[in-house]
Amino acid sequence: MLELQYELESKAAKWYATIDIANAFFSIPLAAECRPQFAFTWRGVQYTWNRLPQGWKHSPTICHGLIQAALEKGEAPEHLQYIDDIIVWGNMAMEVFEKGEKIIQILLKAGFAIKQSKVKGPA
């Protein structure tokens, strides 16, 4: 986490914006062959997860990697990412707005949901 903090401090800019992907883990379907390992019984009924569960120890790593891959494939502008949180920066508000919009479009195309209330900035 400190590495991310130092990286951000090196990106001195006048304007910043943040994007938080809504329910990112639940946007990621589990492959059918993996679902049995996520089965559980509750009150005598057996259930299984069909989406990446939030409490599983590998979920953050998988989520981060899939978002990173989508952003690379979509040729996202320079940004920093920590799991499902993304920050962009620039010296003009419009520049930051445009970077944020491009990233949002890439994420939407990849199947992730964005709540406008979770997008902050440019500020």
UniProtKB/TrEMBL annotation:
EC number(s) stated in the UniProt entry for this protein: 3.1.26.4
Domain of life: Eukaryota
InterPro entries in the cross-refs: DNA/RNA_pol_sf, Rev_trsase/Diguanyl_cyclase, RT_dom, Viral_Replic_Matur_Polypro
Start and end residues of each Reverse transcriptase domain: 1-123
Signal peptide: none
SUPFAM superfamilies in the record: DNA/RNA polymerases
Pfam families, A to Z: RVT_1
GO function terms (MF aspect): RNA-DNA hybrid ribonuclease activity
Family named by the database record: Belongs to the beta type-B retroviral polymerase family. HERV class-II K(HML-2) pol subfamily.
Protein name: ribonuclease H
Organism of origin: Hirundo rustica rustica
